[in-house]
Amino acid sequence: MPTALITGITGQDGSYLTEHLLSLGYAVHGVVRRTSTLERSRLRHLYGDPQIYGRSLILHYADLEDPTSLRRILVKVAPDEVYHLAGQSHVGLSFEIAESTVDSVAMGTLRLLEIIRDLPKPPRFFHAASSEIFGRPAQVPQDEATPMVPVNPYGAAKAFAAGLVRIYREKHGLFLVNGILYNHESPRRGENFVTRKICRAAAAISQGRQEFLQLGDTSAQRDWGDARDYVRGMWLALQHPQPEDFIFATGVLHTVQDVVEAAFSVAGLDWQKYVRRDERLLRSQEPFALVGNAAKAERLLGWRPGKDLQALVRWMVEAEL
Ligand code: F7E
Predict the structure, then answer these.
(1) Among candidates 28, 46, 21, which has minimal Cα distance to 236?
(2) Out of 15, 94, 104, 130, which one is annotated catalytic?
(3) Whose CA is nearest to atom 38 of ligand 1?
(4) Active site residue 154
(5) Helix, strand, or coil (residue 174)
(6) Which of 235, 2, 66 shows the shortest CA–CA distance to 31?
(7) Over the stretch 53-104, which tens digit does the pLDDT of each residue have?
(8) Between these two residues, 34 and 146, which has the higher pLDDT value?
(9) Is the CB of 193 under 6 A from ligand 1?
(10) pTM across the whole model
(11) pLDDT digits (tens, 9 = 90+) for 134-184
(12) Which of 79, 121, 142, 143 has the smallest number of Cβ neighbours within 10 A?
């Protein structure tokens, strides 16, 4: 039975990746942080199953800010594969909590790399990098060779971490991979990311539980895909014979406004009656035309994402309803 260790297992991607790996026969170990509320809702269906929890799914307490705890788990579990998904991931908030964002995203990755380097049998390592490393890219669409020009603390931290993954791969000959992930969504997306916020609001307004929806810049564009495709890509990247970086993206740009119209139409509402602009939600530094070219992942891994934003939004609104 292959063994995987996931940081960020309680998040959207961690929960889908856990399901994927369990379906492939893996033993899955997850790193969880102690919090005063036990927030593991995305894993509850697995957590509550005595055939799975404690057998093929095991959770361990550790923290990216506590290298001793990470080292102990890595030594004890001796995983074949590590999927590093943890870290503060909200771009807008990274301006407010810059130090803790950089500490978890950048330093957290460095700490893991330093531990892995010392292990007698270093695991294959997947780092969830982000399209935010490109910020204001010189090239549209971006590929694996596009220079990194981050425009916010989160993007800068991810660029630092992705750069170290490349450096440690070359210097120490380790199997380290950056998956450069563009936005990917699902009903398990955090509630303060824009697609989930919109889909939740459309459903709640249609059921009389909410009056209106406040948004920032609805002309902002993103390349949005289905989260389940992206976790499949993570696994494929670690099965490839050589460690290489891969872009995971749909290659299609949409505006926030497109998401609004699709979501309100599924809920049977006229969006114009309910959507308001809130200047406080505008970001000072919006990235520009972040759209990815995933041709390398398709060619080498056979990875192909769904590209239908309408279907993605329908799934998300129906889950809220
Ligand atoms: O914003 C605009 C906002 O917060 C998307 C993370 O997973 O993907 C995600 O980062 C766009 C931006 O995601 C609201 O200004 C308008 O232009 O859903 P988001 P993000 O910032 O693209 C990347 C790839 C990551 O790596 C990140 O970890 O929507 N927008 N009005 C709004 N955004 C939010 N959150 N809330 C609004 O009311």
Answers:
(1) 21
(2) 130
(3) 215
(4) yes
(5) coil
(6) 66
(7) 889 999 999 999 999 999 999 999 999 999 999 999 999 999 999 999 999 9
(8) 146
(9) yes
(10) 0.97
(11) 999 999 999 999 999 999 999 999 999 999 999 999 999 999 999 999 999
(12) 121
Q: Are 311 and 265 in contact, with CB atoms under 8 Å apart?
A: no
Please indicate whether residue 131, judged by its CB atom, sits closer than 6 Å to ligand 1: yes
CB-ligand 1 contact for 115 (6 Å cutoff): no
Instruction: Give the distance (Å) from ligand 1 centre to CA of residue 91.
Output: 7
Which CATH code is given to the segment(s) 3-185+224-251?
3.40.50.720
For residue 166, report the distance from its CA to the centre of ligand 1, in Å: 26
Strand locations in the chain (E): 3-7, 27-32, 57-61, 81-84, 124-130, 176-181, 184-185, 213-215, 221-222, 225-226, 246-248, 254-255, 275-277
Dist. CA 149–CA 142, nearest whole Å: 12
CA 194 – ligand 1 centroid, Å: 5
Residue of 302, 172, 182, 150 lying closest to 237 (CA atoms): 302
CATH number for the domain running over 194-220+253-291+306-320: 3.90.25.10
Enumerate the domain spans of the chain: 3-185+224-251, 194-220+253-291+306-320
Q: Is 220 in the pocket of ligand 1 (CB under 6 A)?
A: yes
Kindly give the pairing relationship between strand 225-226 and strand 275-277: unpaired
